[in-house]
Amino acid sequence: MPDNLASADLMAPDLLDPPAGRAAGASGDAPAAGDVTEAGEAAAHGPSSAPGGESEAGEPWADGRWAAWRRRWHGAAATLTPLLRRPGFVLAVLFVAFVILSGLVPSWFSSYSPSATSPTDKLRGPSTSHLFGTDELGRDLFSRILHGSTLTIKATSGAVLIAVVAGLAIGVIAGFFGGWVDVLLMRIVDVLLAIPILLMALTIVTALGFGLLPMAIAVSVGITPGFARTTRAEVLRVREQAYVEAARTGGASWSRVMLRHVLPNSWGPVAVLTVLDFGAAVLLISALSFLGFGTPPPAAEWGTLISNGRNYLVTSPWLSLLPGLFVGLVVFSLNHIARTLEEAQR
Amino acid sequence: MLRYLAGRFAQALVVLWAAYTVAFVILHVLPSDPVTLQLSASGADIGTLTPAQLHLLEARYGLDDSILVQYFRALGGALHGDFGMSLTQNVSVSSLIADKLPDTLLLSAVAIPITLLFGVGIAFLAIYVQWRPARVLLARLPAVGVSLPQFFVGLLLIQVFAFSLSWLPATGNSGADSLVLPAVTMALPGGAMLAQLLTRSLADTWGEPYILTARAKGLSRWATQLRHALRNASLPALTLLGVIVGYTVTNAVVVEAVFSRNGIGQLAQQAVLGQDVPVVQAIVLIGAVLFVSVNLLVDLLYSLLDPRVASAARVA
């Protein structure tokens, strides 16, 4: 097995160069293509196991794997370091991390219960005791926003997860098989793209009813076509590469080529689109819950909070405007992350 | 050229038919029963009705036929502009839409010039201005505009211009001044997207040799940008503008909810809240018609504006 690895390393420069950066990107935290030579070695172990037997898993194998992991880690670090030197990017990542963490464990960041009413403190403006003020029942708005994050994050990640899986599947199948399968799938995608996303979402919410899950499904159907398109374009590009031909000539099956070679190397632009669509999904889901299609009270997503605050806009504008600003910041951060990653990939 | 036109037109029709069908399938095949939906929307309990009464209701809306019969009847009706009866309001869907659509189209007609003003203005200045901080600010501004939720912008505008300054009315459909805030809100995301695209393509165009020629001949920066750069950079922006105009109905949903305006968007919100299937179906079709026809128009404009597209079509 060590021989096998060594020979694969020798092969690496000419055959495996183009996919290497992307493969490292896909496996590391950053989907950005990095230092090609370094990452090229890191990715070499993947294709190398294709021609060799996979049954033996002795000590040397583990050693080789460990080395590969270390090289991969260095590759990821090399791509990450320049990103860390951009303060805007770091700030955006930190803010998104804070939102996710506070959505998962809201109690760490706010001592108030989101549903604890306090008639003496109603409609108080932002202060040190109530960071974002209180609503018409005296509930702490900051705590309600953080608990709203939990719901919004659930719906958003559900929507994006479904869209990524479905979009990748459609795109890979269409791009890889080509012919009538491609034509059929892309015509369907065209039709879905011709229905404006929000209208599609409204249709699905009408059919499925209100709440988190219907909203997540509605949004995912809306953003899937974009993923399918992007993935297909990437697959079409990767399919023509020499290393795919090499893998086929080497006797790898279609499914293996698809899973081990085409999919990992088409992943880069899709990853950027994922971050971007997270922002779009947050906007869509808060719009849907603003329109009143979200979870029933007293639970409240961001959109519902903003919508409820409208009744007190004259006297207590913070009730609507602070949650609105919060949503804006989240989306802005996500967009900024996506754009920085896209620039790094070029 | 004629063949190209006919082909594009046929394609648009197929997309419309398919969009209608997709909406129909979602609304009718998914596990939801219109009668139950309607009853629960109006607060009645399905258990209190006898089977005979239920059957009567179903027969009234033609729901006792098979799904295929219903589909072809609905499709045939839609072709004649007949979308059936609303389930929640006792009027025909077409009269509801005829009642609401003009308000939305008016709003959109005001919003689109503002979109253009935002988009082209910011992009033009972002490239023209040479003082670095202003340049950076103008280039970053659209990213903020794209990220802010439309309803937040709307509420902020209401708070500032209606409640604090009392310059403009906060809600309603009366008079021209009630159009201003909704139109600005509606224009903002589109304008920001347009500005992003145009800034990028203007910056690309500045590197072209013909710009250098124009500058070398002594044309001012302003004139060069206006006459040479902007014209060439605006082709991709035209496509985006088509998408923005095509999204009128979608944009109207949120804006009309924020400003409590009458219109097709408000109708859409009420229809979804009342799970009024025929109304939702009709609104999806109208949204798709608008989207597809505007994009068809943009494609045709393209072949007029860019001779390369027309000649490519002729060859093909």
UniProtKB/TrEMBL annotation, chain A:
GO terms for biological process: transmembrane transport. SUPFAM superfamilies: MetI-like. It comes from the Bacteria. InterPro entries: BP-dependent_transpt_permease, MetI-like, MetI-like_sf. CDD domains: TM_PBP2. Pfam families: BPD_transp_1. Residues 149-338 form the ABC transmembrane type-1 domain. Keywords: Cell membrane, Membrane, Transmembrane, Transmembrane helix, Transport. Residues 17-60 are annotated as: Disordered. GO terms for cellular component: plasma membrane. It is found in: Cell membrane. It is a multi-pass membrane protein. The chain crosses the membrane at residues 89-109, 159-181, 193-223, 270-293, 318-338. PROSITE patterns: ABC_TM1 (PS50928). Belongs to the binding-protein-dependent transport system permease family. This is ABC transporter permease. It comes from Frankia canadensis.
UniProtKB/TrEMBL annotation, chain B:
Residues 101-302 form the ABC transmembrane type-1 domain. Keywords: Cell membrane, Membrane, Transmembrane, Transmembrane helix, Transport. Its main location: membrane. Pfam families: BPD_transp_1, BPD_transp_1_N. It comes from the Bacteria. SUPFAM superfamilies: MetI-like. It is a multi-pass membrane protein. The keyword Transmembrane helix applies. InterPro entries: BPD_transp_1_N, MetI-like, MetI-like_sf. CDD domains: TM_PBP2. The keyword Transferase does not apply. The chain crosses the membrane at residues 12-30, 105-129, 141-167, 179-198, 237-259, 279-298. It is found in: Cell membrane. GO terms for biological process: transmembrane transport. GO terms for cellular component: plasma membrane. PANTHER family: DIPEPTIDE TRANSPORT SYSTEM PERMEASE PROTEIN DPPB-RELATED (PTHR43163). Belongs to the binding-protein-dependent transport system permease family. This is ABC-type dipeptide/oligopeptide/nickel transport system, permease component. It comes from Frankia canadensis.
